[in-house]
Amino acid sequence: MDIGIFVFESDSSLDPAVLARRAEELGFDSFWVPEHPVIPLQTSSPYPGSSDGIIPDVYGRVVDPFVALSRASAVTSTIKLGTGICLVPERNPLLLAKEIATLDLYSEGRFIFGIGAGWLKEETEIMGGDFPHRWTQTKDAILAMKELWTKDEAEYHGTYYDFPPVRSFPKPVQKPHPPVFLGGKALNAFKRVVEWGDGWMPNHCSVDEIRQGRETLNRLAEEAGRDPSTIQVMAFGMSGQYKDREAIKDLEQAGVSRVTIWLDDTEKSGALREIEEIARQVLD
């Protein structure tokens, strides 16, 4: 089982270079950060992570994930570097493809592309996304990026993105491209993973939900003529989840090959203590 750390990196958090380097020293497999370019002051979208629906203040203070991961990359050599998640509809896919390829180049093939379509309608729309059809837009962007990553001369003609033959370098170190992980628990989410993803990254799920999801993925993959073993499952833990060896063992038996554990204390005073405590609890 590959075990990673998720850090809600903000302007008051410990430097991602310091955290990622310590995580690597302790034996963690991966280091993950989120994305929220802006948080509108007035929203109608309830925050899905709490019963009151209020968006935590830290969401408006998160740093850019690719800058943070680049900083982490410069002081590490083995730990994987992931977005948890990148809000694809809020980015231009030609620029995003180059950012990812460059990060994968400089990290020597350590990037994992965790993606989502977003839950905050107002943010998505401010950034140019089509919120009602955000997953359709996300698919369009991913297919366009795959063309850019895999071809010396790439062109794409889709619903949201359309460009003539272009050259876009560098290419990613990982071939054909860094793995693309998607979240979600609905049937459509599983279909997306099978059709154009490399892995499923459910968050805030029970072990039983993940086991059932793995079974659904296996069935859909077989129906589509895809080898189910080419689809990875990563349990993306929320606050308090998966912080003991028994939980990790249960996830492994449910078909999970990778798990991320949420670092609750990201402040400069407590982050290193917590990451060391998590290592004692879950790493051999």
Structure characterization notes:
With 284 residues, this protein is an alpha/beta fold. It has a single domain (2-282), classed as TIM Barrel (Alpha-Beta Barrel). The protein has 9 helices and 11 strands. The strands form 2 sheets. An 8-stranded parallel barrel has the order 1-2-3-5-8-9-10-11, surrounded by 6 helices. Helix 3 (93-106) packs across helix 5 (134-150). The longest helix has 17 residues, at 134-150. The radius of gyration is 18 Å and the shape is globular. The model has no long low-confidence stretch (mean pLDDT 96).
Strand arrangement in the largest pleated sheet: 1-2-3-5-8-9-10-11
Percent of residues in helices: 25-40%
How many runs of DSSP E, i.e. beta strands?
Answer: 11
Ends: how far apart?
11 Å
Radius of gyration: 18 Å
String of helices and strands = EHEHEEHEHHEEEHEHEHEH
**SS content category:** alpha/beta
* CATH fold naming: TIM Barrel
CATH architecture assignment name: Alpha-Beta Barrel
Question: What value does the average pLDDT take?
Answer: 96
Secondary structure blueprint with pairings:
Elements (H helix, E strand, L loop, with lengths): L1 E6 L8 H11 L3 E4 L31 H10 L5 E4 L2 E2 L5 H14 L4 E6 L4 H6 L7 H17 L3 E4 L4 E5 L13 E3 L4 H10 L2 E2 L6 H17 L8 E5 L8 H9 L4 E6 L7 H12 L2
Parallel strand pairs: 1-2, 1-11, 2-3, 3-5, 4-5, 5-8, 8-9, 9-10, 10-11
Antiparallel strand pairs: 6-7
